[in-house]
Design a protein that fits this description.
Low-confidence stretches: none
Shape: rod-shaped
Oligomer: single chain
CATH architecture of the largest domain: 3-Layer(aba) Sandwich
Distance between the termini: 58 Å
Mean pLDDT: 91
Structural class: alpha/beta
Helix content: 40-55%
Largest sheet: 5 strands, parallel
Domain Response regulatory: 3-119
Number of helices: 10
Pfam families: GerE, Response_reg
Keywords: DNA-binding, Phosphoprotein, Transcription, Transcription regulation
Organism: Terribacillus aidingensis
Number of strands: 5
Radius of gyration: 27 Å
CATH topology of the largest domain: Rossmann fold
GO molecular function: DNA binding
């Protein structure tokens, strides 16, 4: 049996979802709470397999409750079930340790599926939550080394990858040989490579060759 603690300040929500979960042979609701303070106490006392956690509640919200539960009991698996998709709810809830994130518009059957999936180690997110997380990851991702090159340095790098010498690069780009040498030095430094051969390999490995 998957033992579930249900935390929500709306009694009708708890009654409706709990009634459906009671029909599932592998899920049992072992406790309920309508605020974060009681949720923390029950979670640490009962040690349920899954905690269904509302976010906006009296006494203590679901984010703080999740943080306290997970910090004390790292194995806790919290599924947020809320009406909110705002950034100030989604990110803090995930950072607090929520394993999955659903909306209250989800069908009871979908919540049951999420309980099983989360219990088995998977994360279940509303599509919009997944999009938010991916966008933040892309935004926070460090730029690729070649993205730090200037336009001129990229031109020089492409010619290096094509096997051109410094003199040939100077002729093709109509710049001084001394300037080419400066660009090559900057390119090697920015790409964190030792020589022109490694720079050329970097270009090919990253699909940069035009």
């Amino acid at each position: 049996m998957i033992r579930v603690l249900f935390v929500d300040d709306h009694e009708m929500v708890r009654i409706g979802v709990s009634a459906y979960l009671a029909t599932q042979a592998d899920i049992e609701v072992i406790g309920e709470a309508d605020n974060g303070e009681d949720a923390v106490k029950l979670a640490l006392d009962l040690r349920p397999d899954i905690i269904l956690m509302d976010l906006v509640m009296d006494k203590m919200d679901g984010i703080e409750a999740t943080k306290l539960i997970v910090s004390t009991w790292p194995e806790a698996k919290v599924i947020v079930v809320t009406s909110f998709l705002d950034d100030d709810k989604v990110y803090p809830a995930l950072e607090a340790g929520a394993a999955s994130y659903l909306l209250k518009t989800s069908k009871a059957s979908e919540i049951a599926k999420a309980i099983r999936a989360t219990y088995n180690g998977s994360a279940v997110f509303e599509p919009e939550v997944t999009n938010k997380v991916m966008k933040r990851m892309r935004k926070n991702q460090a730029p690729a080394l070649h993205e730090t090159l200037t336009v001129r340095e990229q031109e020089v790098l492409h010619l290096i990858a094509k096997g051109r010498s410094n003199q040939e690069i100077a002729s093709e780009l109509f710049i001084a040989l001394k300037t080419v040498k400066v660009h090559v030095s900057n390119i090697l430094s920015k790409l964190e490579v030792q020589d022109r051969t490694q720079a050329a390999i970097y270009v090919h490995e990253n699909g940069m060759l035009k």
